[in-house]
Design brief:
With about 325 residues, the protein is an alpha/beta fold. The chain has two domains: about 220 residues, Alpha-Beta Barrel (TIM Barrel); about 80 residues, no CATH class. The chain contains 14 helices and eleven strands. The longest helix has 20 residues.
């Protein structure tokens, strides 16, 4: 299957596994890359030393392209980037920051650069900064979101109209039909996050994976808007945040409640009551935990079935 995304990354299918914190280690990334997509390591929850180990393990378990997602708000990002360059990683997704800050540095080292955006203005900045592609992520997505709360299927055609860059759709995509819909709206490929969290190779805690299966329609909410919007499963921690926000709590008070390590506590350590459980709205459609390769095949099989159905209209 050919698209601008498969050509850009040297992969077989235009499906990228999101580099999610605490969930996207070498087992998941290499499994998706071996299946024909692009696996990403989620560097946002890794110290430089852990990232180096994860990159080396990924290199030893796949000879296919893989990349690293680097949130730019991370305090030790320059150490991470040095490791990425030294270890010969060829694809980097950046997020949560100005795309111009590190793009030139990365491209000077022969690295393909992709930046995650939540609005048209940021997509235009990406094109001006010289990135190679953009991920346009709607607010259906799990984890940190744009303040605009623009849905994926509203955002994709707007970004497509505004920039000429290869475009990857993200947020609420976990099926082949969702993939086709995004591409009809102008995407060249898709990024899948939540569905791969509920895979055997995901580094998420088993209790978190099970909680995802139990999260039905309307089970996730956008919270912490004063600090930085993040989509969470409803649990005891979310309820405390929700009550504080409704009472008009200041960003400082919300930050104090958030503290340190809430995401690790929930997603990696498995404290599903007091931890931060980041997952997308599409979790309501996730009904099992399977190998990443099986999930990947199901997405592609459904995509081709949907394409053929349209041909017969």
């Amino acid at each position: 299957m050919k698209s601008r995304i498969t050509s850009l990354f040297g992969i077989d299918f235009p499906v990228i596994q999101a580099g999610m914190i605490w969930c996207s280690g070498w087992r998941l990334a290499s499994a998706v890359s071996n299946a024909g997509g692009l696996g990403l390591l989620g560097a946002g929850s890794m110290s430089p030393e852990v990232l180096e180990d994860q990159v080396r393990k990924c290199k030893s378990t796949t000879d296919k392209p893989f990349g690293v997602n680097v949130p730019m708000l991370y305090s030790r990002i320059e150490e991470q980037l040095d490791i990425i360059v030294r270890e010969g990683v060829k694809i980097v997704f950046t997020s949560a920051g100005n795309p111009a800050k590190y793009t030139t540095f990365l491209k000077e080292h022969g690295i393909t650069v992709v930046h995650v955006v939540a609005n048209v203005k940021s997509a235009i900045k990406c094109e001006q900064a010289g990135v190679d592609a953009v991920v346009a992520e709607g607010f259906e997505a799990g984890g940190h979101n744009g303040k605009e709360e623009t849905t994926t299927f509203t955002l994709i055609p707007q970004v497509r109209q505004a920039v000429q860059l290869p475009l990857i759709a993200a947020g609420g995509i976990a099926t082949g039909r969702g993939m086709l819909a995004a591409m009809v709206l102008g995407a060249d490929g898709v990024q899948v996050g939540s569905r791969f969290v509920a895979s055997e190779e995901s580094s998420a805690h088993q209790a978190f994976k099970q909680k995802i299966l139990e999260t039905g329609d309307g089970g996730t909410f956008l919270a912490l808007k004063k600090v930085g919007p993040v989509r969470l499963i409803r649990n005891s921690f979310f309820q405390k945040v929700h009550e504080l926000e409704n009472s008009g709590a200041s960003p400082e008070l919300l930050t104090e409640l958030l503290g340190k390590g809430r995401a690790k506590l929930g997603m990696f350590d498995g404290n599903i009551d007091e931890g931060e459980l980041e997952i997308g709205q599409i979790s309501a459609m996730i009904g099992d935990i399977r190998p990443a390769a099986a999930i990947f095949r199901e997405i592609m099989d459904e995509f081709h079935v949907a394409v053929n159905e349209i041909k017969n209209w």
